[in-house]
Amino acid sequence: MTGYKHLFQPIQLRGMVVPNRIAFPGMTIGFGVDEYGCLTQQYTSYLAERARSGAGMIILSSTLVHPPALGLLGPDRLALWQDSTMSGLAGLVETIHGYGVRLGIQLCQLPGRLAKTEEELANAARPARQLPTNDGMTKEDILVAVEAYGAAAERCVRAGFDFVEINAGYEYMLSNFLSPSRNTRTDEYGGSFENRIRVLVELVRRIRTGIPGGMPIGVKVNGDDFLPDRSWTLPEACRLAPLLEKEGVDYLHVSGGLRGAQRWVIPPMYEEQGAYAYLASEVKKHTALPVMAVVRIKRPEMADRLIRENKADLVAMGRAQIADPEMVQKARSGNAADIRPCLGDCLGCINPFYKEMKASASCTVNPEMGREHVAHRTPNAAPGNASRRVLVAGAGCAGLEAARTAAEHGYQVWLCDRRGFIGGQLRLAAMMPKRQEIGDIVSWYERQLNKMKVKMLLNTLVDAGLLEELGPDFVVVATGSIPEVPLGFIEGLNNIQNVDLMTVDEYLEDQRPVGDNVLILGGDQVSLQLADFVSERAAAVCLAGNEDLLASKMAVMDRDYLERRLRGKENVRIFNKVHKVEVLPADEIRIVREAGGEQLRNIDSIIFAGRRCPNSHLLEMASGMGIPAQSIGDAKGCQGEDQGTILAAIASGREVVSQLALS
What we know:
Layout: E1 11-13, E2 16-18, E3 22-24, H1 41-51, E4 57-60, E5 63-64, E6 78-79, H2 86-97, E7 102-107, H3 118-123, H4 139-159, E8 163-168, H5 173-178, H6 193-196, H7 198-210, E9 217-224, H8 234-246, E10 251-256, H9 277-284, E11 291-293, H10 300-308, E12 314-316, H11 318-323, H12 327-332, H13 352-355, E13 389-393, H14 397-408, E14 412-416, H15 425-429, H16 440-451, E15 455-457, H17 464-470, E16 474-477, E17 481-483, E18 490-491, E19 500-503, H18 504-509, E20 517-521, H19 525-535, E21 540-544, H20 556-567, E22 572-575, E23 578-584, E24 588-593, E25 596-600, E26 605-608, E27 612-614, H21 617-624, E28 629-631, H22 646-662
Parallel strand pairs: 3-4, 3-12, 4-7, 5-6, 7-8, 8-9, 9-10, 10-11, 11-12, 13-14, 13-16, 14-15, 16-28, 18-23, 19-26, 20-21, 20-26, 21-22
Antiparallel strand pairs: 1-2, 17-27, 23-24, 24-25
Helix pairs in contact: 1-2, 2-4, 4-7, 8-9, 14-16, 14-22, 19-20
C-alpha cells in the first residue's frame, strides 16, 4: 500500500471528480501531429502509456486556436480551429477514458497578428523563427482571438474532453498581454494591470458561455516572469487569482519564466527540486480555487508533502512521467524505489526545440519515449532466449541499459566491469557541483539489475580467458572512452619541469591532488563541469578550449546555469576559441587566440579533459574469437554531435540489444 495518502485523495473541480492529485501537464513534444494539424497514433500511444499508470488528469498541449499569420513556431501543433481535427481527438478521449483518467486540453495561441486572408492561411504552415509581439494586434484581431478560443473550446466539448485549460503563461499570446515586459500597448489592452488582464478575462467569459456548466476551466499563468525589469511578478499573480475565481475559473496552474529570464521556464538540475512550488503556494493564499504546482517535482514524496502542507492542491509531474510512464502506479503500489528518475538535464525533453524549429522530444533515461506506438511494452522474452548468453563489458550508462534490456528479453546476462562498482562515468558526473541527481539513475539500475538476477562481475577485466570461460553468444562492448592528450593543441610539453600532468579520469577516479593554480584543457561539457568542481578546491582555475561554443552538447538551459555559476566565481577564467596552448621554459603557459596571446604563470597542474577516443579493443578481440560483438555508447564513438552524452549512451544500449532480440 502507498504511504502517499494525500497524493491519492480525489479532488472535485466543479462537476468533475479527479481520482488523485497527480497531473500530467501539457508539454510541447514535437511529434504526433500530421501536416494538417491532426492527431496521429503516435501522440495517442504516448499519452495512453502515461494514462495506463493512473494519473488523475492529463492535459493535451501543443495546440493553437487560430492560425497565426507568420506560421507555426517550432514543432507541429494541433489545429483547433478546424473541425477535421476533432475525429482524432475523440478517439484519444475514448482511449484515455478507458483508464479512468480525466482528459483536458490546453488552449493556446501564439502572439502577433492573426491570419485572415486566404494567402495568410496558406502560409500559416510555414514555420516562423521569431515570436511577434501582441503590440501589432488590432482590436479586430483581439476580438477574433477571443472568439477563436471560445470556438475551440466548443469543439473540444464535442470531442468529449473533460475540461479545458487556458495557457496564459510562457510566451503565448495571453502571457504577452499580461507581462509589462511584452505589452507596450497604450490602448485599453495595455498599461495598467486591469488593462493587461482584459483579454484573459474576456475569453474566460466567452469560453464559460459556450461550454457545459459543469465543465471545469483551468488557467495556467506565470507566478513570476523572472525578468529584472517590467516583469509580471508574484504580487500581480496573487491579485489576478481572486478575479479569475469570480469569472468562473475552477483551478490555477502556476508556473514561471519567459524567454531571456534569469530562471528558465524548464529549468535543469541547477534549480532545486520543486523550485517554483512557492509560487503556487503564495497564490493559493489569495484564492479558494485549487492550485496546481509545477516544475521539477519528480518524486511522489515531494508531491505528497506539497499537498499535506497545503502548499498546493494538485501537482503537475511532467518530465517525471516522461522518464517513467509507470511512475503513478509504482507510487500507488508502494514501489517508489522502482521509479526511473528524471535527471533534470533537459537534453532530450526540451533542448531540441532550442536547436531547430522542427524537432521532436526524447528522454535521456527513457529511450522508448516517442516510440510507444512501435515499442513493445513487454519485451519478447521467448523461451529460447533463456539459453542465449549475453556478456556486457562495461557498467557505465550504456552497459547498464544494455544489461537491463537483455534481461527483459529473457537472456542470461553477465555484466562485467574492471572497477569495483557500477556507474562508470555517471558516478564521476554526479560528483560535479549541483549535479548529484545524475547518480540517482545508477541506484535505479542497480536495483533493477538485482531484481532481474543479472550476474554482476565487478573488479573483472574482460579478456580472452574470461570469454573462453563464459562462452557468451553475444558480447556488448560498453567499455567507454579514454581521454587523449591533445598533442596538436598543446605544444612544448617537453618544457614541463614542475607542472603535474593528469587526465580528468586520473584526477577524479584516483583522487589525484592538484596545486593552487590549475589549467584545464578542453571545451566540452566535462571540461566546464570540471572547472566548477576544481574551483572549489584550488585558488585559481583556467579553462582553455578551441571550441567556439563551450559545452555544446549540454542542453542550452543547463549550460546557461553552469556558465553563470562560473562567471560568478572570481577564481575562474575561461578561454574559448583558443588556437593552441604553448608551454614555455620555466613552466610558463601561453594561451594563443586570434586576438593575441596571454601568459599564465605559476600553473601547478594541467588536467586534460577534452577529446576522448573509443576504448574498443575488446570488439576486435571478441570478433577474432568468432563471438558476435557490437560496440555501444562511447566505445562506439564519442565525438559526433549526437554522441558522448548520457542520452546517446542509454539509447544505444537499448537499441543494440533490442535489435539482437529481433535477429
